Amino acid sequence: MKSNLIGIISLLILTSCNNTAFMKFGPDDKDKLVQINIDSTVSFLSLYKSIDEVLCNDHDCQVQLVIDTDSINYRLNLINMCGSTIACTRSRNIIFILDDSIKKYDVGTFNYDSLSNLIQRDFSNNGIDRSLSENPSKVFLHFMQPQSLERVNVKRRLVRTIKEFRKTGFENEKLKLWVQLHPKEIPFTGEIPDEDELDEEIEKLFKSI
Fold it and tell me: Within 10 A of 139 (CB to CB), how many other CB atoms are there?
């Protein structure tokens, strides 16, 4: 009887483990994937440095974030490049996730719950509205957080971003996400500008000519 009870408990544990769903997001841009488990980092800065170190050491690889939760194990392929690589894109194709809010230049700032609607607007625009994306293939999310943000909150916001994308009904591989330092915390040299000047420089930084 005792051995049967142990067997039943073991079976329940195995069944419970197998009930965790697995979901993959993001494009497969490279043949070589290097995984970084979000739980192995301590802060957003720690995560960013881990991503950048991998990509700067091997330009032929792509980083996949491992984001495990109680109900779903997420795998998110990033579109990051090495931090020293210059990437030019038009701001109209970018949706910025700044802290816990969403920003679209020339459109406005929104709460997190508006992310799925903004993605749908960008995907369906096809270049018509000049403040929105040129075409769906160019839309991506710029995930920018404070360097000191703790891992638990970084993870929560990443999961929330994925859930908002799922609401759109688009294919999982259409989610393009770039992890970047918050623009107000990017190191710089020279005279420190006032807040208004800094905001102007931040906007110029992400707008292409």
Answer: 23
Number of H helices, E strands in the chain: 5, 9
Spatial separation of the C-alpha atoms in residues 44 and 39, rounded to whole Å = 11
Place of tokens 């990509």: 55
Looking at mean pLDDT, say which of 78-92, 162-176, 187-201 comes out highest: 162-176
Question: Of 181, 190, 103, nearest to 148 (Cα)?
Answer: 181
Q: What is the mean pLDDT of residues 32-45?
A: 97
Task: Label residue 10 by pLDDT band (50, 70, 90).
Answer: very low
9: pLDDT strictly greater than 70: no
Residue 178's CB is within 10 A of a number of other CB atoms, namely 18
- From CA 185, how far away is CA 170, in angstroms rounded? 33
Q: Strand 72-77 to strand 61-68: parallel, antiparallel, or no bridges (unpaired)?
A: antiparallel
**Tokens found for residue 117:** 């609607």
Dihedral, 131, 137, 143, 209 alpha carbons, nearest 10: -50
Please name the residues in contact with 134: beta carbons below 8 A apart, sequence gap of 6 or more: 90, 92, 93, 125, 126, 127
Q: Are 109 and 101 in contact (CB under 8 A)?
A: yes
The one-character DSSP state at 198 is: H
Residue 124 confidence (pLDDT) above 90: yes
